[in-house]
Amino acid sequence: METRLLILNSDPVFQDTALAIFDVIPSVELRIVRSLNEGIYVLMREVFDLLVVEGEPAVAIEQATNARQHFPSLDILCLISSRPRNLLVAEADLQKVSLIETNVPPAQLQRRLRKVVADFEVKSGTSAEGIDPCHSLVGNLNQFSAAEVLQMSCLGQRSGRFTFKSGRGTSEIYLHHGIIRHAVYGSLDGEAAVSEIFRWREGRFYFEEGIISQIQTVNRPWNHLLIENLQKLDETLGPISNFSHS
Amino acid sequence: MIDAALETDLRLLNLQVESWKKLHNLMTCGLDKAKPLISVEQERQFTEVRGVLLQESEYVLRELNLAEELAGKTSNVLERATSIRGVRELSNDDTRRLESDWNAVFTKLGVMQGQLKARRKELLSRSVLGESLSRIFARHPARR
Predict the structure, then answer these.
(1) Of the candidates A123, A162, A132, the residue with the CA atom closest to the CA atom of residue A43
(2) What is the DSSP letter of B141?
(3) What are the residues facing A6 on neighbouring strands?
(4) What secondary structure letter does DSSP report for A96?
(5) Do B15 and A26 make contact, defined as CB atoms within 8 angstroms?
(6) A18, burial (CB in 10 Å: exposed 0-12, middle 13-18, buried 19+)
(7) What is the side-by-side order of every strand in the sheet holding A179-185?
(8) Residue of A48, A51, A52, A67 lying closest to A3 (CA atoms)
(9) Which one, of B100, B98, B64, lies nearest residue B81 by Cα?
């Protein structure tokens, strides 16, 4: 059985020490991507056993941390070009990201990478899934807006946590029996955070059933929030569309 | 058996083909008159892919011994296609030349990809010993 590796390497032609090692390991199938966005896109559609992020320690660990937010149960390995600072090691540890330094003699690196692949062969059949099983709903905001998914969940009397991720950051909305109880985005919380999330047109979202917030920052019913925010959106988009048509 | 040099060539070739495909997708957006709008994101992607090809093509083609045959056509494509908007504004003749050069590069890379994959398949069915012996005999033909 083949071990499928997704390699995130921004410069796979010139920085290919590890790639050259993976190339000659039998029963390994490689897929190389150059950016995190591309990697997430691929991981959402295909199953891989391991995500390997290669690069400078700070960049690689940040990318691995971002990937972890999308795929909580995926095995992630960072191949880093130098010894990272303790803070970065702690971050990697927190995110359950393994680290291997590549500035070691080639034979040593080869041994380590072969061991990583061999470990996967031992636990064949327990491949990591692209979408975590704890997510009961996953989607893209360019296909379903935040308003649509929240409307659906509120009507279904759901309780749980929505996480929205985009280039602007991460935000969370907590539902309790179909009522928005709490929302947070950066320093914003409550209705201000909901308003902000309404404007997002790109990014991903997922819903985890049963996660309840102890804090309550939203007190108005969902339909009031929906109408108010759609009105605000109309007022914002109106002048822009008039301008672009003129 | 696995030949490390062959695997490296195949990896370089796959990466190069992927980049040429992406470039073509974005060039097609520029030539598609039914879609008048070109987004900033599309232009960004185009610049990204073009940057990758400008940086890597020469090296990859040299590694694959294709530089003599394809370097001219490659640089023609990359020099003519400066942006999606630039592609849209090309004259009909220039567009035809661009597509013809792109096609020549893509065809050659595709053919070579197939040849290397066939070679890999053949090697996988051979043992290391058999391959070493065949190399030795190929280097020293029997003397009469």
Answers:
(1) A132
(2) P
(3) A31, A51
(4) T
(5) no
(6) buried
(7) A137-140, A204-209, A160-166, A169-176, A179-185, A188-189
(8) A48
(9) B98
Pairing relationship of beta strands A204-209 and A188-189 according to DSSP bridges: unpaired
- B60, A13: Cβ pair inside 8 Å? yes
Q: Hunting for tokens 């796959």 — which residue is that?
A: B14
Residue B50 Rama label (left phi>0; alpha psi -120 to 50; beta):
alpha
- Using left for φ > 0, alpha for ψ between -120 and 50, and beta otherwise, residue B34 falls in alpha
Q: Which long-range contacts (CB under 8 A, 24 or more apart) does B123-131 make?
A: B123/B1, B123/B2, B123/B3, B123/B6, B124/B1, B124/B2, B126/B1, B127/B1, B128/B1, B131/B1
pLDDT of residue A242: 45
Tokens standing for residue B91: 């004259």
Nearest to B15 by CA among A45, A34, A48: A34
* Beta carbons of A162 and A173 less than 8 angstroms apart: yes
Nearest CA in chain B to A11: B52
CA dist., res. B31 & res. B132, Å (int): 52
| Option in A14, A23, A32 nearest B8 (CB) | A23
> Which two tokens mark A199?
């404007």
Identity (one letter) of the amino acid at B124? L
Q: Is the pTM of this model over 0.90?
A: no
Nearest to A15 by CA among B12, B82, B119, B134: B12
* Tens-digit pLDDT profile for residues B8-63: 999 999 999 999 999 999 999 999 888 778 899 999 999 999 999 999 999 999 99
Q: Quote the tokens at residue B13.
A: 């070739």
- Contact predicate B112/B64, CB 8 Å: yes
Which of B3, B8, B11 would best serve as a mutation to test chain A binding (most A beta carbons within 10 A)? B11
ipTM: 0.81
Measured distance CA(A194)–CA(A142) in Å, rounded: 17
